[in-house]
Predict the structure.
Amino acid sequence: MLSTQLIADPATDHVAVFVDLIGDLDATLGSTLADTLATLAANGNNDIFLTTRHVAATSDDGLAALDSALTSARARGCRIAIDPGNRRMRAAFTVARIGYRDDRSAAFPSAGRHLMIARHAAPPKARRRSA
């Protein structure tokens, strides 16, 4: 008689993915994050922990893209928790009505895949004034 034992069921086992956003949360970083979350959500078995503690500046377009990306990934079955990291980002999430969870240890393991997505917007060029 042949018996097989299933060690890990890919349909139910979840993989923790830690995503750090770094730099300026604008429309470009928001669309990059949306593409990344769509790729991670394609499997449907990823648990995503998003940290924004290294975000220096936010824009309305960036927060809207972030909210849309989170909603799409959650609709595909991903569990997502957000660590805003600082008071400024908590205030931005509150104003944009993006829910977050501060308690990382209760929902996610301490180990997993780690992704860093960075974007620093170019500073505006100084214009010469004609006299």
Summary: DSSP finds four helices and four strands in the chain. Helices lie at 27-41, 60-75, 87-96, 104-107. Residues 94 and 100 are 9 Å apart (CA to CA). The chain has one domain: 15-119.
